[in-house]
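Structure first, sequence second, as always.
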């Protein structure tokens, strides 16, 4: 029916109940495309009239302000579609984004 993208917690942990947790998670949820329960990070969502794209980034140390970030995965959904498609890289930022709303 639809597509859901869930971001990882930036500072909160995820209690992983054993090494086989992801295998059980995927087996119980065959529609699940990608999951990572061990890393912290954030997701950048880019929405256009043609598609919605989510790019997941992981951080190596949530307590270090100079932490390294790494791209973990990118998935997109075309307008009108109900499934995710893996992407090689996130879309480039727009060259002429709209102005931010006043505070």
């Amino acid at each position: 029916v639809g597509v859901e993208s869930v971001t990882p917690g930036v500072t909160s942990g995820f209690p992983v109940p054993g090494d086989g947790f992801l295998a059980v998670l995927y087996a119980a949820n065959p529609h699940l495309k990608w999951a990572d329960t061990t890393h912290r990070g954030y997701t950048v969502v880019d929405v256009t009239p043609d598609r919605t794209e989510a790019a997941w980034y992981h951080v190596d140390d949530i307590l270090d302000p100079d932490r390294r970030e790494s791209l973990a995965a990118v998935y997109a959904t075309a307008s009108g579609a109900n499934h995710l498609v893996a992407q090689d890289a996130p879309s480039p930022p727009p060259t002429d984004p709209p102005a931010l709303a006043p505070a």
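Margin note: Strands lie at 40-47, 51-59, 69-78, 85-86.
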